[in-house]
Amino acid sequence: MKFKNPTNGYVEEVSSPGLWVLLFGFIYFAVKGVWTHAVAGLVLACFTFGISWLIYPFFASDIMRKHYLKQGWAEVS
Predict the structure, then answer these.
(1) By CB neighbour count within 10 A (0-12 exposed, 13-18 middle, 19+ buried), where does 65 fall?
(2) Which residues have CB under 8 Å from 12's CB, separation 6+?
(3) Which residues lie closer than 8 Å to 66 by C-beta, 6 or more apart?
(4) What is the chain's alpha carbon radius of gyration, rounded to the nearest angstrom?
């Protein structure tokens, strides 16, 4: 997935977020600036003893897409 910032033309590529979330969990969301899911991932990991870490990757692509679109970025094909 690629997203373009309409104000300055910068293109950000988000490649295989599910894999990165599986490997690094909530840290991936923190690095990308998706703080709501970073905090939610940390809390869920604590309460579910890490089982949520195996479920979150299935939703990572949609989470990242919604994050960029909500900030006004345009998806580039």
Answers:
(1) middle
(2) 2, 3, 4, 5, 68, 73
(3) none
(4) 13
- pLDDT digits 0-9 by tens, 26-64: 999 999 999 999 999 999 999 999 899 899 999 999 999
* pLDDT per position as a tens digit, 62-77: 999 999 999 999 999 8
- Reference 17, options 76, 60, 53; nearest CA is 60
**Which amino acid appears at position 59 of this protein?**
F
For 2, the enclosing helix (H) or strand (E) is strand 2-4
DSSP state of 10: -
Backbone angles phi, psi at 11, to 5 degrees: -110, 125
Query: Is-contact 18 60, C-beta < 8 A?
Result: yes
**Sheet containing 11-13, strands listed edge to edge, beginning at the edge strand earlier in sequence:** 11-13, 2-4, 74-76
